[in-house]
Structure formats: structure tokens, C-alpha cells
């Protein structure tokens, strides 16, 4: 039996520039962080039959990997060469679908890591991220970028540079002093908007709009340099919230489905109560609202948003990793 733990993530600035159609021409960049909410993937051998069992929000039992309805599990099994006699279970700290916290990529990265360890193979972090991108984008056909797979694999607070002309991804750790790192973590709040959405719908429109939104995407890319400067050189972090706000205004121009009147009203309520800035996590349209809120304003912001459930979290250092391994008796 193998159990892997893989973090969910929050993305701060630059989202949208991680789509291949954009960064292969112009280059892209994001700053994002893993958080201490996780998906756990359990892989164990079936000793008495050769069937494939998959347990998630439903249960599947099949005798042929091609019959699996769970696309990510099916393609990960094919990628890793496992075709029979295995049981896979996914368990998460929060609901997986529609949250905007990079859940599908966390599942894919954690699944690949577990399936390789199950076979006694240890893949590099880069290989796990690349293969997760291959599964989600090329095999399954999701209209998504590549930042989520990388932060799930690497963890921590990172800048990712997506290099033009297929020159790969550059991973840049944001090495903050511990006191500043804790302040940033403490000043970030997540509230559930009480709405879920299918990110593919929003992202497909965003993908189709890339040619028409080049200027907005280029401006989103410049925010990454500015946020890095705030993190590494500023005396305080309040400008972090201002840049989140600027990012949000640009992000709403990428697709008509990123926001709606309810989300806009919720965001403005938070800002009026003292939040410096924020954004809908992930593609938009629902899920979680991320806010940067200085400590002295957090009570008033929580009071103003008391009708919405808050997800308490911290930034997390680790990416995907095995947390339990029991040898397989053959």
C-alpha cells in the first residue's frame, strides 16, 4: 500500500499566462503557493482478483482500464503501465470539484506519484509535473494552463516562468524570512462563495480569447515582477493586496464568466470592510474568494462576510510526497 499527500494551491498573480498558446509566443509567469489542505491517494494491491477498483465520489469496478469513467485515473494507469489488480482511493480535506484550488491537478500529480511508488519507481518533481500536464491537457483534453500541476508537485511559495518556444519551465523559490512568511500566511483569508462551477467552460472561453486579450495577459505577466519585488524587498506587505486587486480587475476581462454580480458584490463588501484586495481562486465563476486582509481589519471583514463559510488555512512548504509505504507481498 502507498499513500501520497498532495497540496491544493492558491494562485496570486499571472494566471492566464500559463496557457501554452500564450506563453509559447510571449512567455508567461505566475506566483502561487501550496496550502495545508491536501488530497490523499491510496494505492493498494488486489490479491484475490485482477480487477481495477476506484473509489472517489462513486465506486468503479472494471476488468479493463479502458472502461474506467474517471478520466484522470484511467490515463494515469495507462501512463504508468498498471492495467490490473489494483485498488485506488482518493480522499480530500475539502470538496474536490469546483473550488478553484487546483484540485484536479493535485489529484493527477498525487496519483502519478502513488502509482510510480507502488511500482518501486521514484520520479523527479519535474517529471511528475510534466506528466500531469500531459494527462490533463493532451490526453484528457482539458482547456487549462500548466501552473497547477507544477505547484502541486513542487509545493512552497514559488514563481514559475513559462519559457517561450517550448524551452520549459523555470522554478524560482520565493525565499522569505520566516516572520514575513508567517505574516503573509496570516493575512490571507479564503471564503466560500456558495457557488461551484465547471472551470472548463470558463477556461475554454478564456483560451479562445487569448489572441484578443494579449494586452491584458501581458499586463498580468508584469504583475509577477512587481509582486516578487514586494515579497523580497518591501518593508510591509500591504502592496500585496493592491496587486491582487489589480490582477482581479485584469482577470475579469479574460472571460465574461470569471465574475458575476453576486461575486462582485461579495468582493466589494470585503474591500469596504478593510480587505486590501483579492480574487476568485482558480478560473473564477465561484469556488473560493481569496482576500489579502491586514490583521487589524480581519475582524471587520469576517463580520461583513459572516454569511459565508471561511476556510482556515496556512501556506505550505511541501509538494506531493509519500506519507505511508507498506511493502507489497508478491
From TrEMBL:
InterPro entries cross-referenced by the UniProt entry: GHMP_Kinase-Related, GHMP_kinase_C_dom, GHMP_kinase_C_sf, GHMP_kinase_N_dom, HddA/FKP, Heptose_7-P_kinase, Ribosomal_Su5_D2-typ_SF
Ranges for domain GHMP kinase N-terminal: 74-156
Transmembrane segments: none
Pfam families for the chain: GHMP_kinases_C, GHMP_kinases_N
GO biological process terms held by the UniProt record: GDP-L-fucose salvage
GO molecular function, one term: ATP binding
Record's keyword terms, sorted: ATP-binding, Kinase, Nucleotide-binding, Transferase
Gene3D superfamilies in UniProt: 3.30.230.120
Superkingdom field: Bacteria
All copies of domain GHMP kinase C-terminal, residue ranges: 232-307
Keyword Transferase: yes
Stated family: Belongs to the GHMP kinase family.
The protein's name: GHMP kinase
Amino acid at each position: 500500500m502507498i499513500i501520497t499527500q498532495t497540496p491544493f494551491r492558491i494562485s496570486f498573480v499571472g494566471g492566464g499566462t500559463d496557457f501554452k498558446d500564450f506563453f509559447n509566443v510571449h512567455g508567461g509567469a505566475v506566483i502561487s503557493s501550496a496550502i495545508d489542505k491536501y488530497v490523499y491517494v491510496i494505492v493498494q494491491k488486489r490479491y484475490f482478483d485482477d480487477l481495477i477498483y476506484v473509489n472517489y465520489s462513486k465506486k468503479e469496478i472494471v476488468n479493463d482500464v479502458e472502461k474506467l469513467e474517471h478520466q484522470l485515473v484511467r490515463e494515469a494507469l495507462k501512463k504508468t503501465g498498471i492495467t490490473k489488480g489494483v485498488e485506488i482511493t482518493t480522499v480530500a480535506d475539502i470538496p474536490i470539484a469546483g473550488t478553484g484550488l487546483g484540485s484536479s491537478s493535485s489529484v493527477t500529480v498525487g496519483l502519478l506519484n502513488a502509482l510510480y511508488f507502488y511500482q518501486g519507481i521514484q520520479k523527479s518533481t519535474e517529471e511528475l509535473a510534466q506528466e500531469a500536464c500531459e494527462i490533463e491537457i493532451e490526453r484528457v483534453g482539458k482547456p487549462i494552463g500548466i501552473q497547477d500541476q507544477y505547484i502541486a508537485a513542487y509545493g512552497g511559495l514559488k514563481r514559475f516562468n513559462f519559457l517561450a518556444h517550448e524551452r520549459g519551465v523555470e522554478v524560482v523559490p520565493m525565499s522569505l524570512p520566516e516572520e514575513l512568511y508567517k505574516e503573509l500566511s496570516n493575512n490571507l483569508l479564503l471564503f466560500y462563495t456558495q457557488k461551484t462551477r465547471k472551470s472548463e467552460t470558463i477556461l475554454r472561453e478564456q483560451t479562445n480569447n487569448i489572441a484578443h486579450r494579449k494586452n491584458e495577459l501581458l499586463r498580468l505577466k508584469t504583475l509577477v515582477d512587481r509582486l516578487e519585488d514586494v515579497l523580497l524587498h518591501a518593508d510591509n506587505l500591504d502592496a500585496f493586496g493592491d496587486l491582487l486587486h489589480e490582477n482581479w480587475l485584469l482577470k475579469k476581462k479574460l472571460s465574461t464568466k470569471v465574475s458575476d454580480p453576486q461575486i462582485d458584490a461579495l468582493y466589494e463588501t470585503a474591500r469596504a470592510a478593510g480587505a486590501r484586495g483579492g480574487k476568485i481562486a482558480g478560473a473564477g465563476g465561484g469556488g473560493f474568494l481569496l482576500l489579502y486582509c491586514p490583521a487589524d481589519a480581519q475582524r471587520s471583514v469576517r463580520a461583513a462576510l459572516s454569511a459565508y463559510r471561511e476556510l482556515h488555512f496556512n501556506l505550505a512548504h511541501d509538494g506531493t510526497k509519500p506519507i505511508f509505504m507498506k511493502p507489497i507481498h508478491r
